[in-house]
């Protein structure tokens, strides 16, 4: 699954909750039974908007592995007519059995059928059950979605599934665990004006036996798959068929008036599918794959085998409305889901504990795949390095968690779909790729896929394959094994800062490690942790930034203590060293004062481009974080950052902006903000001018990095009022407003629209806001709607913002529920919006909870957005509010922990470090 906000989960109660509850309370199903095949029939009613429902029956063939007197499976919110349940033995002597009683366990959504006669090991049984429910509005299970037909102005309804991680149980009774793979024969009934899609191709279509104009479509039998990968949809969409000789049939589906936005995905899809066939050395096993853009979709996308579902923004691309950034993101998501067809679908994790394995891999392999198909985008470094910086921030909290962790409740699974699983997972896999080298990495991954196809595996299975490959290719010393190394990264929370202390006369360096925390108050004992760190480095005289192969390792004892390490043969005392070439490993590097001085000298006065661009970004990110935690002074940090006046590349700038934007927010409303703004203008203006300002029109000759660089520089130049950024943005916006058909013709260059809209709205009138809101309502392109929703939150007008907050949480969903969390985040990130948004949230938390319940993803986004609080009084108020409102934040315990800690870090910093910063700001402005 691709995670956009994060995952939602049902914690509701069965309709049958009045039944006796059972004593069986273990979080995994009993192991005496195993499903072999499901015959699933579902009839979907989309005609009456007041009665969007489904009903059906499931016939499950079950192998008895041990004798048992009950069948325990999952069912949630389904109406089940128990008089219609049948059970019989179908192997050996065919015999009728029956159900004597039923019970439920609402915590784990178990539905227990006690059998009249014991089920005997070695036999096969057939259980049939009817079920029915409403198509829900919460974007999970089997749910409804809708869109407005632009010609008739009527609402069109469709149905679609979202089962991961644990919602198949709310669509039909099933053994809803990833390890219980089974074959599926799915048959869908629906009005014949619709199309039905499922994992497999259509086998045959027949008229419904009684309902007029209804048909039954039966799909081919599937391969063994996990329940969370089952999918189906009934819709009236159009499609584009991709052509790729020899490959599977690939179709891209969308509502008819968006079908012209399918071209890019239809062209890119087969290319990336073919790439992964070669990468894994296993052909795509299904005859077809469909990708479908669903108007209401809570995640980024979902990799259901053979029927991949997407949010519109993740699949639809409009040449005239979507930015390059949106296009790249789309390619990443498509590649991510395609990678899952092997890593996840063909080889599946045994249990949700190893969720990170499929998600980390899909994240990393997606970047490799896109880089292969679009080498001109230079996406690999950009994506991976930005992921690393983002995770460095999150994972420096005490409330962070390991990539791999025990899962017992389905609400824990939901919180696992976070940046740590995806982005840190991807980052440590990249690290492994870089220390193993190309051959060993590829060979090991191939082996793992081939050995475990159609089965379930754990991370240790992967480590075994990789260790073997590593030793075979000589990529790792014989006495090292991947499991020991990687366990230190996947089972431990956090990551190290490596301290490099040089002895200049002896030309050696002492290297030590400790866990990095944002909170300077964490005691040294808690910092004493050990990771197996591959060390790569270069020096001013060598400047060899090409090889990321480790030149040494930091090792750990069996007890997890770090062994001291000395590096020798370092250069003379007037030459710097840099560790962690191309940020190939997941750690921060801190140096002694002299080495920082040497680095700063080269950056500010010397040949700064002789330092690899990724390492320039690393130095900026590291030093600003060290200053934030007091490990370095702001004097060193600002001196280093002042080199940005010379920098013309995307990565170092993006690193700087990620950190400085946070500083800027902290300083808002303090006396230091003026100086800070001056500093930002001083840094940004040379590059703004170098890029030709807003109207600089050398885009055709620019590469992708430069286009994206320009977008972020304009955004921040306008934020800090540099040069003519705001005036030019307003002029652009006015030109757009004066167009007769603004929805057809938008003169603002696509890639800077997000920045221009925001600047214009920030400095604009009520009428400007209304104009943009109208464009939102009329837009047919999800990515354009996305940037408009963010821009509307840039306003500084309290009245407009208040109105916007009402619209965001309006149950009429003019703004779709899936987009509300991000719209809210935009409001509270602004100076005027922050107090308004916080108050609105605290006053309306119950209503907002009702809007999303039982899904928790958007509530999580809202909580995270609240980390903008910076003063102690507001912190205390928010803390009291959270405590009082616990019941609205069920399943979000971890998010709350992270949010409260992030806020506390802001507060502490304001109280303790802001003065130090301002002292040095004077010097650099
Ligand atoms: C159902 O049977 C399994 C053993 O096959 C047993 O572990 C479990 O406790 C039983 N469930 C109930 C509710 O009795
Ligand atoms: C479409 O329907 C809405 C109400 O659902 C109405 O307000 C609007 O005027 C209609 N538009 C057209 C073009 O008919
Ligand atoms: C994009 O805009 C150009 C120029 O306005 C127009 O000619 C073209 O048809 C548009 N493309 C699409 C797909 O709408
Ligand atoms: C540096 O190394 C030399 C030679 O080994 C030693 O004499 C000196 O004390 C060391 N300096 C420091 C500061 O550790
Ligand atoms: C590093 O790689 C680049 C590009 O592949 C090459 O131009 C350069 O000479 C290499 N540098 C060293 C020191 O090997
Ligand atoms: C932005 O708005 C402020 C206050 O309304 C105004 O003083 C300033 O001139 C505006 N900037 C531009 C470039 O119009
Ligand atoms: Zn995924």
From TrEMBL:
According to the record, the signal peptide region is 1-18
Location of the protein in the cell: Cell membrane; Membrane
**Organism of provenance:** Drosophila ananassae (Fruit fly)
Task: Give the catalytic activity.
Answer: Release of an N-terminal amino acid, Xaa-|-Yaa- from a peptide, amide or arylamide. Xaa is preferably Ala, but may be most amino acids including Pro (slow action). When a terminal hydrophobic residue is followed by a prolyl residue, the two may be released as an intact Xaa-Pro dipeptide
Protein name, entry field: Aminopeptidase
- Which InterPro entries does the record associate with it? Aminopeptidase_N-like_N, Aminopeptidase_N-like_N_sf, ERAP1-like_C_dom, M1_APN-typ, Peptidase_M1, Peptidase_M1_aminopeptidases, Peptidase_M1_dom, Peptidase_M4/M1_CTD_sf
Under Pfam families, the record lists: ERAP1_C, Peptidase_M1, Peptidase_M1_N
Specify the domain of life of the species encoding this protein: Eukaryota
BP GO terms, sorted: peptide catabolic process; proteolysis
Q: How is the cofactor bound?
A: Binds 1 zinc ion per subunit.
Q: Where is the active site?
A: 337 (proton acceptor)
What topology does the record note for this protein and the membrane? Lipid-anchor; GPI-anchor; Single-pass membrane protein
